[in-house]
Amino acid sequence: MPIVTASSASLVATFFPATGGKLASITANNEELLFRNPVYQPANLGRLNAWTSGGVEWNWPRLGHSVFTSQPVFVAEVATARGPLVRVYEFDREMNTTWQVDAFLPPNGTTLWTRVTVNNPNPTPVAGYWWTNVGAKIGERSRVVLPADLAIVSTGDDPARPLEAAPFPFFADAGANASFAPTDHSYPANYGKARENFIRGGGGDHAFMSIHDGRGRGLLHAQSATQAEGRKYWVWGTDDDDAARMRFLSSPGDGDYVELQAGPAPTQSQTFPLGAGARRAWTESFSPLAMEADATKLNGPYAAAVAAVAERLETVGPARAEFDDVDAFLASVADAPPSRVLHRGGAWGALHAALVDDAGDVAAPFSTSEARPFPGAPGLAFGSVDEAVAADPAARPWASLLVNGTFGAEANTADVVTSFMVDDAWVSLMERALASAAHPDDAWLLHLHLGVAAHHRADYAGAMAHYEASAARKRTALAARNVAALRAGPGAPPVADGVLEAWALAAAAASAHGDAVASGREPARCPAAVAGPPPRDDACPTATFARNLAREVAAALVSASRWTELRDWFASLRDEDERVRAALSGAMDVDLARAYAAFHGRERSSTTSLEASATAARGVLRFLSNAKIATTSGLTGGLPELWTQCQYAVRAATLGRELAVLEKHHVRLDFPVPRNINFAGAT
């Protein structure tokens, strides 16, 4: 994994450009200040089903963990009068905004400074969302110390009242109206279950959050509440379920952590306005908390602990005068051009800069070999269109549309569409291309993309019309799948018949392409398209699409309890193209569906024996006992019930009869659901 480091006389900051530019580590004289995860273990806590714990992550622009958490982003070095800084930045092609984090370590400083800038170059306002999530390792004596008038805390079990106000840190786990004595929640070890604590007030304008290990050593984070008022303290609970989550996300014994989070909005259920052509920026600081001499105060009455850290902030620093000075300096260099780009991110920033001018209108003709400045963010170097296409082939059709008015022959003959655009400027470009009829071979693909754009903005009738027009010109798996999604309705899984049709189209296209490659009529679109399995990444879009579509087929059939069709579908996979079968290897939702099918989909009749049911159940139980599930999905919620039903079947075979109600109760006690398949309380 590539890394970028910045260092001073005492601090070293380490960034991971390939995973969202995460600030993975800050060491002070070789002592780690963050939770640096010793493993890379993605889980389904982000928009791409690939979030990892630890370090400092930058979350923009939609509610929740960022789409960039496991994506490569740009990292550059910027020369300044005070020394070099590291700039982490990227373009978001859903909202057409940019974000950047300028990280600065003064040569002899003991503080890492970051300045966040979010930029909206659009002619219309957007709803912004940013949170800096700071992972910090904890032990049994760790304590979070921060000023607070109160906290907005998550209730956990009451969907009608997900958040409530509580005095911080003393409140009862059962809620504001509980009769129990309040618990000191500044200690992470005192949380039974995972909880959000949105901190309100108490810190003046120079707000801070800190955590120490019980001995007075730890991390101090500060921000200007005028610039960014949001502060949050997130903690996993100590119950078995939450402990299992932390173990899964790291290695056993190494994964206990909390997060101190900062952002402009008061809570993560809210956004903040970012006007047309506007930007918003603020500065944060990260320093070692070295207060061993004050350990007694830090572990004593909470108000005294807060006062001790506040005094340390103003005497040792970074004091408010230093904060304001660095804030002004970082603001003055926010648009300074990079002296060199250290790591390339996505291709889309370069394409957008070529597409629109500063007013957000489609730009005049340009040279694909020359980089254009990005509207409203001249300090972000995305490179030229040629560089973007060379780095990411998925951008090639869009570059062709931009330059030639057509997606090109390669895109028009591809089985799988690998990238999409939903911005008004791109939609306008596609509509003009469709109206011109200069390239009729593009029509099916233009209708498909215009359908996706309409679908994205909730124009469902328009989306259906475009999908049907695309299918009338060329039947494709993606159009069939998207029609199935429309028919299911917003938020629901695609209807089963539609995704089965999509699967048949995808499998036929893959098989035809495999035959064409074998006969020499077509070049392979994926490495090793005939001999051996394809690579398990975006280098083979056919494999990626097959996995994702298979997950939807499996989930749709399980959800509808269509066990016979699910069993038949699995049987049909034996006849599929080798590349398709290889693509499904290790697809967890597909494997889970096999388990459901093995138990519920077995042949049944009035003469089906208890032993036959138990035989199927034993195989499912073996699978579930050893399953390593990195994701929560529509199929994981039913696993505890599947486990229990299988245990009933085994016990019934042992007794030679169906179980009574009390006997089932004893089975549940004897064979509790293992934690690896129990996602109760997962977030």
Automatic annotation (TrEMBL):
InterPro entries according to UniProt: DUF5107
Domain DUF5107: 8-270
Taxonomic superkingdom: Eukaryota
Pfam families associated with the record: DUF5107 (PF17128)
Name under which the protein is recorded: DUF5107 domain-containing protein
